[in-house]
Structures are given as C-alpha cells and as structure tokens.
Amino acid sequence: MEFINEEYLNSLIDDKKLFDVSYQKEIIEKSKLAKGLTLEESAALLNINDPEVLNEMFHTAKEVKEKIYGNRLVLFAPLYLTNLCVNNCLYCAFRRDNKELTRVTLSLDDIKSETKYLVEQGHKRLLLVAGEHPKKSELGFIGEAVKAIYNVNINGGNIRRININTAPMSIDDFKVLKSFEVGTYQCFQETYHYDTYMKMHPSGPKKDYSYRLYAMDRAIQAGIDDVGIGALFGLTDYKFETLALLSHAIYLDHTYGIGPHTISVPRLEPANNAPVAEKPPFAVSDDDFKKLVAIIRLAVPYTGIILSTRERPELRREVFELGISQISAGSRTSPGAYKESQDSMEEHQMEQFQLGDHRSLDQVVKDCTELGYLPSFCTACYRSDRTGDRFMALAKTGKIGKLCAPNALATFKEYLNDFASEETKKTALAAIEKFIKNEDEALQNKINKMIERVDKGERDVFF
Ligand code: SAM
Ligand code: SF4
Predict the structure, then answer these.
(1) Which pTM was predicted?
(2) 253 and 125, same structural domain?
(3) Residue 232 is part of which domain span?
(4) Which of 3, 116, 141, 236 could form a disulfide with 251, with the two C-beta atoms 3.0–4.6 Å apart?
C-alpha cells in the first residue's frame, strides 16, 4: 500500500498554500506543455473556486486532449456475462445478499446472440463484465466467451477488440487471460481509502484491499501491457479519490515505464437493494465531476479517460470537452439485456445499476458528430502490436494522432456504410469531408484511398 499514502494525500488536501490563485494559474500554464503534473500540483487544481480560473483549466484540458488524441472519441459497449457474485459490495445490485435479483449466467449461445445484436448496431469493441463467482465466471468460461464473440461475423462486421472488467487474478491466471488475445484488463479499486474500502466490502474475496490494489502489477508482470484503473466516485471525498487514482497512475508509470492505458471515472448510480448506492455518502456534484475529469486529463495527458452511460447525455456532452477519449454507447448492464426490450421490468430487476444515457449507438454517433467529434471504431493499435510502451512512445511524441486519424475515418466510414440511419449518415458525411480537409495533403490522399477501399466493400481497413 506504500504508493497510496493517505497521510500525504490528506496533507495536500488540507494545505492552505494550495488555494493560492496565482499558483493555480501557474500550474495551468505548465499543464499546456502536456508533460503531466505532480500530486501537489493536481491538489492545487482541485482547490480552484474562481470561475475564471476554472474556465481556463477546462479550456486547457480540451486543448491538451486535442493535441494528443485529436477530436476522436472511441466507442464501445459492455457485455455482461453473469450477475452472480460472491461479493457483497454495498453499492452494487449484483451483491450476494440481494435476494431479489434474478440471477443469470449467459450460455455460449446467449453470448453469441448478444454479440450479434451489438455487431448489428455497428460496435467493434466490447468490454466483457462479470460478477465474481468461482464457477460462473471462471477463467475457462471467459476464454470460451471471448472465442465465441470473436467468431461472430455478420457480412464483415465483427468484434475486433475485447477488453475485460472482471475480478483480479493471480499472475498465472493473467497469463492465461492474455493468451485469449484480449485487449485492456480493467479493474477499479472503487475506493482507495482503506477504512471506507473495508466498510463497503464486508465479505467475499473482494474484501482484500491489497490483492485488488496490486492487480495491475500482477497483470503487467503476466504480460498484459494495457491496464485500466478507476475509482467509483461517491464513496469517499472526491479530492482524495482523484489524488489516489493519480498516485496509482504515477506508480505504474514509474515502476513499469507505462502508466495505465485508461482511467475510468464511474459515479455511483442508484442500484436495487444496494443501500450505499441509494444515498452515496460523498455524492459528487456535476461541477466537481467536471473538475476532476479535467484535472486527470492535465495530470496524465497520455492516458485514455473513459466515460460510461452512467451519465446523462447533457452532462456527457459537457464532459467530452474536458478530455474524455473513450465512451460507451447503447449500453445495458445486465446479462442478456441486449436482446430484451430496454424498458422491460425484467431487465431492471437484473441490472447492475441504473443508466443515465439510454440512447442508441446511432443517436450517440449523430450527436457526437454534430458536436464536432470524430466517432472512432478503430482497433488497429491492438492488432498491430502497438500496445503498452509502443503505444505510449507514439502518444508521447505526438505521432499517435497522425496514425489514428486515417484509421478512425476508415472505420467510421465503414460504420456509416453498414449500420447508420440515413439521418446520421447525412450529418456524418459532411463532417467527414470537413475532418479530411483539416489534414495535410499527404494524409488526405492516404485517407481518401482508405475510404475508397471501404466504399468498394473491403472491411477492416487500417494501417
Ligand atoms: N465484479 C467485478 C468487480 O467488481 O471488479 C467486475 C465488474 S463490476 C460488475 C464493474 C464495476 O461496476 C465495478 O468495479 C464498480 O465500480 C461498478 N459499479 C458497481 N455498482 C455501481 C453503481 N451502483 N453505480 C455505478 N457503478 C457501479
Ligand atoms: Fe460483485 Fe463487482 Fe458488484 Fe461487487 S461490484 S457485487 S464484485 S459485481
């Protein structure tokens, strides 16, 4: 636990010097270099109250995001394998003591039909999610599920990258997980505050704070070089949680030479029979949420930040501006829910928590395009071995943007040709033209050639 130094983080939160407005302005200037921030500097930004300074920080976060990732937003959807769970997390509807939850584990046929539904919406990236259960979510089953998903192909449409969000594993199990050819392994610490963690996780294997905290070390040691960390905001003071998340990111970077590939920022949502979710002990306001996202962007500029459909569309639009690089869309949070009607009672009784954004992928794509973002379904890096330190090296030298733009545009055109509604297509085609015009001539030629191949029917065009 040495890299989460509670005493030090609390001393930063209490430090009066870090409320100094001119110091905060200095840090915002420094953050424009996109070289990251120290914990002390991040703590000072967390104290910003002056609306003008806050606006300047928001503006800088947007600039930094655009400098590294351009205007791309990568899209994905979660796929829940099982809601059976031996843990008892007080905030989650899947917890063992929730006797009212209808427990479901998907069969391989169910997994294939959920995948078919998602492929038909146009998704190319999935996040596999599961409760923790020694039999129902064991590694062999995850392997079978991954294989079944990768094998679904509908006229060239298929899932090309599967990320994983499951309970932490041993190094040996992580080695097996890697052999399934999965992408990022994600696991959220939920809260880095030890006493709160112990209260929130009264029983089950998840009770072990340290085993979860060092999950990423074991994953990296097993050869998984893209890992995703996160905290469930609302369990403890958001300033503490943000600084602790950053401590984790800095620790991974120092120890392994690569920081986390992604940081997730879920906020606690209402969940059936989950006492803590009904009334979050440290509910994070929309304003504080925006602030913490912008600070993460400035503190670790090369890390992807993921925003899920837990948030409402209006807020999602505002937060995209502050440095988000990946978003889920058209999500459901219970096993088998994609083929069920979204509003059926049955589904609500099986879901993990309530969603804030119920729009379809097509609606989200149209909205993002209208806002000036380029929705991306690209999975090229993962399949071209540009993961871990290879990806970071490209990101840190500013080269990733040039590589991503053509790939993003080719996959976006593929999506439009195969899956988009006429209305979305109309908006998006005009946007694509504008995006291409913004690139230099050599890149424009490259992009136009790739799009031509897509229009002729070739699928999965990337370089
Ligand atoms: N069971 C595994 C675990 O806990 O790590 C993996 C998946 S769990 C289903 C995925 C994440 O959902 C958790 O890490 C937690 O952060 C989030 N979650 C649980 N309850 C939530 C709630 N009420 N609101 C928002 N997110 C929640
Ligand atoms: Fe189980 Fe994960 Fe929910 Fe906790 S958060 S009850 S471990 S599914």
Answers:
(1) 0.95
(2) yes
(3) 70-394
(4) 3
Mutate to test the pocket of ligand 2, among 84, 92, 308 (most ligand atoms within 8 A of CB): 92
Residue showing tokens 């030090």: 8
In terms of pLDDT, which residue wins out, 392 or 277? 277
Best of 197, 213, 262, 352 to mutate for ligand 1, by most ligand atoms within 8 A of CB? Answer: 352
Query: Is the residue at 283 inside a domain?
Result: yes
Q: What is the pLDDT of residues 48-84, one digit of tens each?
A: 999 999 999 999 999 999 988 889 999 999 999 999 9
Cα of 167 from ligand 2 centre, angstroms: 8
Percentage of the chain modeled with pLDDT above 90: 83
228-269 tens-digit pLDDT: 999 999 999 999 999 999 999 999 999 999 899 999 999 999
Q: Do 11 and 133 sit in the same domain of this protein?
A: no
286, pLDDT greater than 70: yes
**CA 281/CA 46 separation, integer angstroms:** 20
How many folded domains does the chain comprise?
A: 3
| Angle in degrees, 0-180, between the axes of helices 286-299 and 51-69, rounded to the nearest 10 | 50
Residue 248 CA to ligand 1 center (angstroms) comes to: 19
